[in-house]
Design goal:
Elements: E1 11-14, E2 19-23, E3 35-38, E4 44-47, H1 56-59, E5 68-71, H2 77-80, E6 88-92, H3 96-100, H4 109-112, E7 140-142, E8 147-149, E9 154-159, E10 168-172, E11 177-181, H5 198-209, E12 215-218, E13 224-225, H6 226-240
Parallel strand pairs: 4-5, 5-6, 6-7, 11-12
Antiparallel strand pairs: 1-2, 2-3, 3-4, 8-9, 9-10, 10-11, 12-13
Helix pairs in contact: 5-6
Length: 242
C-alpha cells in the first residue's frame, strides 16, 4: 500500500465561528476522527487529536500558534493519539486512568487498528501491529457542568456516558454549537464496545435532545444542523425504545 508523506497526512479547513476542521483523509471514514481546533481570545482548544500516527504539533501549525488545552471527548485510540504532544490535557474523570495508562485493548486499538482501516498508510516507520497510544496523563479532570473558558468563549462540559463511561460533549450556549464526540454524529453509532452501556446511552440522548442546538461538530462524519440533530436523536431513541 502507498505511504503518505507526513506533510500530506492532514487536511485542514477553516470554518465559521473560528473553528478549524482537521482530518486524516487517508483513514477510512468510519474510523477517521474529526479533530476540532477552536480559537478563543485568551487561548485555544483542541477537541480530540486523531490517531497519533503523524505529529499534529509538527505538521499542523494552527495547533502551536497559541496556548492550547487539548480535550478528549473520550479515550478511544482514534481520538487521543496526539494528546501526549500537548502540555494541557483534559478528560472526564471516568476515563482519566485510560488516558494515563492506555493499552491496545482499553483504547480499542485491538482489534480495530489494521492496515485495512487505511486507504494509504502513514509514513514509515508506522506499523499497524506495533501501533499504540502514548501515555498522556490529564492536567485537568473534567466533570459534568464544568466550563472550559477561552476568554471570550465558554464551553460547558456535558457528561454523555453510553458510548464510553467518560464521554463528553462541549456546548457553547452563546452560539448553540455542540462538539458532540461519539455520542451522536451523522453515521452509524457504536453502542457495543467493552465499556458501552445502553441505559446510559439512552439517558444521554434524552438529555441532549433538550439542548437548543444550532450546529453540531461530531466525532466522525460531516457536521450538521439542529434539525438533523433532533431527527437523529429522536430516530435513535425510537429504535431503542421499541
Amino acid at each position: 500500500m502507498q505511504r503518505i508523506r507526513p506533510e500530506d497526512w492532514y487536511s485542514v479547513r477553516r470554518l465559521d465561528d473560528d473553528v478549524t476542521y482537521i482530518s486524516e483523509p487517508y483513514i477510512q471514514e468510519f474510523y477517521r476522527c474529526n479533530i476540532w481546533h477552536i480559537r478563543g481570545r485568551d487561548r485555544d482548544m483542541l477537541v480530540d487529536s486523531g490517531m497519533g500516527v503523524v505529529s499534529l504539533r509538527e505538521w499542523v501549525p494552527v495547533v502551536t500558534e497559541r496556548e492550547l488545552i487539548a480535550v478528549a471527548s473520550h479515550t478511544h485510540f482514534d481520538h487521543i493519539g496526539c494528546h501526549h504532544e500537548f502540555e494541557c490535557r483534559a478528560v472526564h474523570s471516568a476515563e482519566a486512568d485510560l488516558l494515563a495508562n492506555p493499552t491496545r485493548e482499553n483504547t480499542l486499538a485491538d482489534p480495530y487498528v489494521t492496515d485495512d482501516i487505511f486507504d494509504a498508510l502513514p509514513p514509515e516507520p508506522y506499523c499497524s501491529k506495533c501501533y499504540a497510544v502514548k501515555r498522556a496523563p490529564a492536567t485537568r479532570i473534567l466533570e459534568d457542568g464544568d466550563v472550559i473558558d477561552l476568554g471570550d468563549r465558554q464551553f460547558e462540559v456535558i457528561h454523555t456516558p453510553g458510548h464510553s463511561p467518560g464521554g463528553i460533549a462541549l456546548y457553547e450556549k452563546a452560539t448553540e454549537i455542540l462538539f458532540s464526540g461519539d455520542i451522536v454524529y451523522d453515521g452509524p453509532l457504536i453502542e457495543d464496545t467493552y465499556h458501552s452501556d445502553l441505559g446510559d446511552y439512552i439517558a444521554s440522548m434524552e438529555r441532549l435532545l433538550t439542548l437548543p442546538v444550532r450546529l453540531v461538530h461530531g466525532g466522525h462524519f460531516p457536521s450538521f444542523g439542529g434539525d438533523r440533530y433532533r431527527q437523529l436523536i429522536k430516530g435513535w431513541l425510537d429504535e431503542k425504545q421499541k
